[in-house]
Backbone:
């Protein structure tokens, strides 16, 4: 018996010596030379791979902006595709440094799961898509339908609540990825596909006959989507948060990737712009970054509005209007605290 | 004695090496445990099982017990566990039947049958089972008609890409008489077969126990059924709105998983059965014939009991494999324990460590139970040495 105790004690001692290291993510990122970014497995416009196999889209842009802020080079990002189910484990375990994957900011994820949402880059809500020939005009008429639903998401819980409170039955058809949902929906395994309205618009745009499908008018939930990081590393959280804020403020002040050089050269007499682009004050130094951090973000990735229009805006096949995602100055909800 | 001399002694050396290995293993385990605790602390996470009593909030499409989204995570886990059990039990049964038939056919002297079975076995056991599950699911979802164009091969039976709908029997008052008759018949047959065996040992007279048994077990409940006035009605599935309502449904996910796992495992079982039969020396058959024993008795009393001794141990591993492979359900969205509890619950509560410990323990317990049962059966049929 005493031998056992000695062995256990020895085991415990070695273990204590060998663990540790959950220090600054910013230092870790600098040391390895790239940002490890969790994205979705593919939603048209939001995150997709281009012909050359590079990740592009509305969500990867946030990661590229962070890489531009940290390294001055937006290409220093490596991507980890995650499903609705693997994303939180990947972030919590340290496999990825940040998650930019149309993830809804909720109380329990923020408080209980131990993450920090650094802001909202898309205000969304859950909707339903259904083939036009079924002749359904309202989500209240969906009693008895088979519904394709991505597991491990807030939409899954909203769906259960929606049908229960309206005294309707449904058959949940659980699926893992957007691609799987598309296949099952088009094959008629389910009547309805439900996810965030932006995701529905994006999926529908990729169908052969988008006009055969309608998105029902009801939006049954609030889905503020935003990037998130692990809780407890305020420095890294600030870097990601203010990178997003810098992109939003840049749009508000009219700084674009096209005019950022003139703006930095003094074309604007707005002191906020001067502080943002590093020609006045030392906001970058306070973050532990280069003074030109925000300049690099804007010149290499663009401001919030540019990114929106490039990937999901009304000129793209996805065709989303700015709507509530317009700047507050245009009557929307997008608002960033001042750079001061 | 110095350490060097201890080391040069063969007996002590063996003991010392074993102690070192055990110590190393303990250190590794302790390292993993402390590491996990520290990481959880660093993330500000607590360890506990209170979440089991919180409302699950999600719906499950196949439930063997009543369940809705306001039930607890614990109950959602039970629903998933029962779904796993359903696949495991039905899969093992079908795989065994199919495997035995194929195993015997594989030994057939008919060249064509022999070759066809050979091709089947080589194909199914050399294609990963996950691929087969995805294949069957895709076949059902993409080739069968949509609900509104359902194929109806018999009244009340509909084949669609959302599942196979069949009438559901509704048991009315008086059906208990049929159940009682069935149980009575089973008990009676057991008593009768014991008596017949004793009678045979005493007098040499043989009764047709098997045919009398079948007649009693089928006939008596049937008689009770008619006496009680046929107390069963059928609830027919009917197309209302989006889907068929009423009746019973076998979902594509269940069918694909059950079928794929069964035919995959059946291929292995067929080989085990063939090996078992071939392991019995042909001299046994010849000796039995020389004693004037009928061919089907030779099979039943001489060959199969000896073959079973070879067949049962590897058969156990196949049952264990099938049960564990059922966790591949997640690939097509069949709501087993991994998909409900190990998937959605884990994701909604963020209790990775606790959920994984529970799922792991459940599989371990199921496997050990199957193993214990098969070991008991193996001991029963093992060679009794006198």
Residues:
């Amino acid at each position: 018996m005493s031998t056992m105790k000695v062995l256990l004690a020895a085991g415990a001692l070695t273990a204590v010596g060998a663990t540790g290291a959950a220090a600054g993510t910013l230092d870790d990122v600098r040391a390895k030379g790239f940002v490890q970014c969790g994205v979705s497995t593919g939603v048209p416009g939001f995150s997709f791979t281009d012909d050359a196999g590079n990740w592009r889209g509305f969500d990867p842009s946030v990661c590229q902006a962070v890489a531009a802020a940290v390294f001055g080079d937006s290409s220093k990002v490596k991507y980890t595709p995650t499903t609705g189910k693997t994303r939180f484990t990947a972030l919590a375990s340290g496999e990825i440094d940040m998650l930019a994957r149309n993830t809804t900011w909720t109380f329990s994820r923020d408080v209980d799961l131990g993450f920090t949402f650094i802001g909202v880059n898309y205000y969304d809500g859950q909707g339903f898509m259904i083939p036009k020939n079924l002749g359904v005009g309202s989500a209240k008429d969906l009693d008895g339908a088979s519904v394709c639903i991505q597991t491990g998401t807030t939409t899954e819980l909203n769906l259960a609540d929606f049908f229960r409170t309206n005294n309707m039955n449904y058959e949940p058809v659980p699926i893992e990825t957007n691609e799987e949902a598309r296949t099952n929906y088009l094959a008629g395994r389910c009547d309805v596909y439900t996810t965030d309205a932006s995701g529905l618009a994006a999926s529908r745009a990729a169908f052969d006959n988008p006009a055969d499908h309608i998105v029902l008018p009801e939006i049954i939930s609030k889905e503020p989507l935003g990037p998130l990081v692990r809780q407890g590393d305020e420095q890294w959280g600030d870097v990601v948060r203010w990178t997003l804020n810098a992109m939003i403020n840049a749009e508000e002040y009219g700084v674009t990737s096209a005019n950022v050089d003139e703006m930095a050269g003094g074309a604007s007499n707005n002191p906020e712009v001067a502080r943002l682009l590093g020609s006045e004050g030392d906001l970058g130094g306070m973050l532990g970054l280069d003074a030109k951090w925000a300049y690099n973000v804007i010149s290499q990735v663009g401001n919030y509005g540019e990114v929106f229009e490039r990937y999901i805006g009304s000129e793209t096949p996805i065709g989303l209007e700015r709507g509530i995602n317009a700047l507050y100055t245009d009557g929307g909800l997008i608002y960033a605290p001042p750079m001061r | 004695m110095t350490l060097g001399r201890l080391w040069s002694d063969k007996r002590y050396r063996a003991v010392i090496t074993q102690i070192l290995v055990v110590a190393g293993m303990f250190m590794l385990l302790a390292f993993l445990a402390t590491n996990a605790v520290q990481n959880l602390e660093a993330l500000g996470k607590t360890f506990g099982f209170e979440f089991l009593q919180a409302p699950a909030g999600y719906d499950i499409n196949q439930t063997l017990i009543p369940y809705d989204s306001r039930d607890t995570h614990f109950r959602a886990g039970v629903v998933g566990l029962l779904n796993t059990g359903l696949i495991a039990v039905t899969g093992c049964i079908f795989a065994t039947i199919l495997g035995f038939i194929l195993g015997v056919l594989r030994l057939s002297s008919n060249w064509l049958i022999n070759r066809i079975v050979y091709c089947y076995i080589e194909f199914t056991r050399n294609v990963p089972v996950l691929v087969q599950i995805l294949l069957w699911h895709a076949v059902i979802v993409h080739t069968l008609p949509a609900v509104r164009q359902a194929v109806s091969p018999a009244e009340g039976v509909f084949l669609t890409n959302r599942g196979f709908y069949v009438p559901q029997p509704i048991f009315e008052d008086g059906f208990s008489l049929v159940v009682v008759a069935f149980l009575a018949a089973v008990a009676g047959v057991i008593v009768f077969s014991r008596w017949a065996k004793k009678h045979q040992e005493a007098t040499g007279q043989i009764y047709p126990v098997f045919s009398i048994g079948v007649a009693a077990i089928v006939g008596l409940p049937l008689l009770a059924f008619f006496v009680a006035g046929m107390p069963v009605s059928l609830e027919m599935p009917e197309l209302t709105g989006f889907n068929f309502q009423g009746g019973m449904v076998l979902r594509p996910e269940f069918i694909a998983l059950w079928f794929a796992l069964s035919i995959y495992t059946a291929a292995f079982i067929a080989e085990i059965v063939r090996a078992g039969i071939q392991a019995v020396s042909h001299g046994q058959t010849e000796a039995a014939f020389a004693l004037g024993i009928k061919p089907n008795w030779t099979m039943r009393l001489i060959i199969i009991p000896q073959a079973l001794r070879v067949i049962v141990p590897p058969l156990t591993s196949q049952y264990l494999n099938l049960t564990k492979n059922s966790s591949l359900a997640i690939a097509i969205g069949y709501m087993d324990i991994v998909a409900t509890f190990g998937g959605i619950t884990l994701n909604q509560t963020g209790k990775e460590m606790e959920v994984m410990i529970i799922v792991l323990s459940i599989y371990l317990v199921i496997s050990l139970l199957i193993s214990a049962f098969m070991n008991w059966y193996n001991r029963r049929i093992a060679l009794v040495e006198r």
